[in-house]
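Researcher: Go.
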Amino acid sequence: MSVRLRLTVQQANEKCIPHVEDLFSLANNFFFFLLIGYFSAKKFNMRKQWLIVIHLLFLQTGMLLSCKGPNQVAQGNVLYVGTPGDYPPLTSYDTATKKFSGRDIDLAIVLGKYLHRNVVFIKTSWPTLQADLSAGKFDIAIGGISVNTERQKHFLFSDHIIEDRKVALMRTGDSAKFTDLQHIDVKGVRIIENRGGTNEKFAREHIRQATIIINEDNQQVFGLLKDSIADVMFTDETEAVYRQQLMPGLFVKRLNDSISPVFYKAIMLPESSIELQTKINRWLKSR
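Model: Structure:
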């Protein structure tokens, strides 16, 4: 007798999430032996009472094995991976197929194989990324996530995956005009950023005269930039170069090192996941 549980993204967001299959197998065996006792009873009323006992014990055992606590992801044979899905070439979400793709997605799948855990991707967003990870909606977060001091106060990070830096993305025709940050930060220039990430943070820290426009959809920003709805976007060089390749009318401008120093991207984990962090780092070193 076996019980197979099919996990969905919706289930992954519930308070009670299925635990490892071998623990459920233990519960199933417990149920099986109790069932033998039921059939060995000779009187109907005894069998009826025995059936009630079996049912209650099985439900209680299943609950104990399958729940880790409110809003907590169960540690087992599933690795829940949160990702925004709007940061190609590292993470992309196809609304038609409802599937993720990208370098970091491939990386997470290989990590799952190393850990002997099935990977389930859960879509998050930049504004809710940290809150979702803190709430236990997934085990790790990946997909162009930058390591910074503020995040390090509340989360663990793996060893570095990518070296990156902030650059200015603009139309090719404006590259001679916007030679540096000083010439970008002037009245009348429109800076466009997606909400909630380090791009918006960078713009608000450095822009004093230009107008900052916040767009909710990161995928739309580049089209608005090319169509002259906005003039400049500050983003990571990884993403900027990728977009430039897709849209030849865009130009990548590196900023001064003092304004835009090198930083790193990594896998982000809850503060309590020290053991998982160690395993991930061991795997990264072995690659």
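Model: The radius of gyration is 25 Å.
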